[in-house]
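Design review, sub-item: ligand-bound model
Attendees: FS, YL, KQ
YL presented the inputs for the nicotinamide-adenine-dinucleotide complex:
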Amino acid sequence: MKFDLDFYKNKKVFITGHTGFKGSWLCKILTMAGADVTGYALAPAEPSLFELADIGRGIKSVIGDIRNYDKLKAAFDAERPEIVLHLAAQPIVLESYKNPRYTYETNVMGTVNILECVRNSDSVKSFLNVTTDKVYKNNERQRGYREDEPLDGFDPYSNSKSCSELVTHSYKRSFFKSGAAISTARAGNVIGGGDFAENRIIPDCVRAAEKGEDIIVRNPASTRPYQHVLEPLFAYLMIAEKQYESRGYSGYYNVGPDESGCVDTKTIVSMFCDKWGGISWVNAAPKDAPHEANYLKLDCSKLKSTFGWSPRWHISEAVEKTVEWTRVYLGGGSADDIDKIMRKQIIEYMRG
Ligand SMILES: NC(=O)c1ccc[n+]([C@@H]2O[C@H](COP(=O)([O-])OP(=O)(O)OC[C@H]3O[C@@H](n4cnc5c(N)ncnc54)[C@H](O)[C@@H]3O)[C@@H](O)[C@H]2O)c1
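KQ shared the predicted structure:
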């Protein structure tokens, strides 16, 4: 299918989590489209794509906690958005084992708070909650999960996102029989330039490349649906647009790669090493590591059959684009250089 961002020109879009990895790329796409973007999130971490690419330049950025309903509502009401994309979350599994209460507060009550803003507004036509492939009850099977299967993530992060789904389902049934169209999107693991999160494999590769050290791999055999960050972002924008135009499209959608993108950690790390050159990886699985699923796959036939969507960049290209971005960053690229490489990759992605 053809991606065309004309729809977003001058649209008022409210993004939670805009200072994060996905949020920064999303702001870049939307500013390129000429949208009127307001973001609400915590201050960016250090380093961050948000700062490196000077994302704040093209948008209204409000720094605040999603748990603070009054502050969130004030920012929301000041903008009267038409489209709301909810990304703010504590998104790291290992962190959720260390801080489950904060994870649930942010991921569950954060969802309640943004949905309350939408419920009490008459401007919103389209709301999308970004959850994850980890929302499903994982029974380690080889076949991909479908949207109608049980939601019951194992660890506090995954489970808080299952709860975020359930909160959204209840609000949709209870309060949005008319008015805003409400959807959730359950995406697989993303890779791409500008992710600096702890305990994610590509950021670990970049940090090792920066120091010229071996990459420490915790779970070489665990399989995940990997995709470039632009894949789910364009899918989110497509769902938000389609349901804005016709409420009938609102629903729950998996967003993942084709079969070739479901690879184990050692495969994706080896691809990074090959494309970067001169580094290697070591297996260092800690003995007492908390539980993480070994096998996770999504069935994305609903997104494909509903919208004619299909993934564009396969795993090798996704790693290549990540390496390309990282070379600019580690080469000391300025904000303009980072902006340029992001724009280039967005245009390439749109061309297909
Ligand atoms: N990166 C992935 O592989 C992946 C995969 C599936 C789903 N997701 C989901 O996508 C979304 C974005 O993930 P990301 O990778 O960009 O993560 P990230 O950590 O880079 O960004 C998280 C964003 O949420 C904000 N945030 C966190 N706690 C907050 C709070 N209490 N109040 C306000 N803002 C808060 C942060 O400030 C940041 O802007 C999350 O909902 C995540 O669960 C990510």
